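Consider the following assembly input.
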Amino acid sequence: MSSRSLCTAALVLALVASFSPDRASAYCRMTTDGSSQIGDAPCPTEGAPLYWKNPCLTYAIDYHGSVWMDFEDVESAVDQSFASWENVDCDSREAQLNPANPPNLIFKGLQSSDCRRAEFNSTGNVNTIAFLGSGDPSNESFQDPCSDQPYSSFAFAVTIVWHNTSTGEILDADMMINDQLATRQFAGGPYANCPDSGCPAGNPGEADLASIVTHEAGHFIGIGHSDDQDATMFASAERTSVAKRTLAQDDINAVCDIYPPGSLNDQCNAAPIGGLELNCETDANGDPIACDDPAGAPGSGSGCSATRTPADVPWAALLAALLGLTVLRRRSD
Ligand SMILES: [Zn+2]
């Protein structure tokens, strides 16, 4: 499947997402044969599960940041979100600061990126976190500049997980956050670091950025949606709630099962595949990189930002999104 058709499929799924209360409560893994994880799609049963072979990982926030928050506050929310997946004791299966038996997973926040595109390259990469859409719905849409289609406006955020389609090894992950102003129908900002009691209700009211990014960080490491409505990886979010900041038992089980305690430490090699390249917008001469520039890889060019990829890896992009459709959220109990 070309990445263009993957994008199209993702948008269709977002519109038909529904809730099936009879599924067993457990986390899902994203797989090579799974479809996009948008809404309450069933757990994929075919294909190789996605995973980081070297789970010593970096991320970098695009320097433009969000129109809704100071950059330092965005950094704080993002750092807290990734740390939640590290601060777990896999022995007791509890969230814990400085756990004795953490998952074999290290996240290192880098200096800011200059990259508002989801892409995977042969010549250098960054797991970028970018805010798309300016806050003015008439001005800019929630759209990757190299894609011909916007991401779903129902989504707070989308994570694009680049992976080897044979082995499931994750090659790169990019998180795109919907920075448009939310409407009664669509997700988006304003965002904030809400107090522990949640942000006050409003019209639309501020949404808790850390809750959203913690969910997306689960996709970043290959976890799909859970039908456990208390899980961070449940497919939709209450707008002003901070609940998803805190991993539920189901989320803890997922990260400890997929990345059981191992030998990684802070000295690990966190270089992305192809080396670190924080800037995906301009080349070494400062000239803009066009979306269809091959950048060292022969044969390329699809509309879904998958434009500059290594020639020898059978790759694909899998989209996963957190929806803000709280109106569809209902409890089966
Ligand atoms: Zn999601």
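The pocket of zinc ion is lined by residues 37, 215, 219, 225, 235, 320-322 (CB under 6 Å). Ask yourself how this observation constrains the way the partners meet.
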